[in-house]
Design a protein that fits this description.
The chain has 117 residues and is α+β, with helices and mostly antiparallel strands. The chain has 2 helices and 6 strands.
Length: 117
Amino acid sequence: MKTRYFRDRFGHQASTVVQLDARRSLSISTSQWPDGVLSTTATVRTLRAGKYTLAVSTGGLGDFYKKVAVSSPGRVTADLVKAQHDSCVELLPELHSEIAAHYNAQTAKDVHCVAGH
């Protein structure tokens, strides 16, 4: 697990990357959105064709994505970003369970899928 706290042209941010297995990595990211909301998301990217990519799907067959925390502080400071991010990283055991359930459900759909349907 590797965590970075930094500031760039978009403001204070934090990012934690956890290698889940040989093909998947979990990224927990905290940043301020253009509307002022401070958001922390958990996203799994899968190694495809030599690159880690995020497959988006509304049918439950894409990669795992979850908005873990949202707040609306008057001013986003480095301390606020760190506090929100660290509290979300503490949820790693629960996130691991949710991620496993997400991909297990996909496997179940693949097994029960009938060609042409």
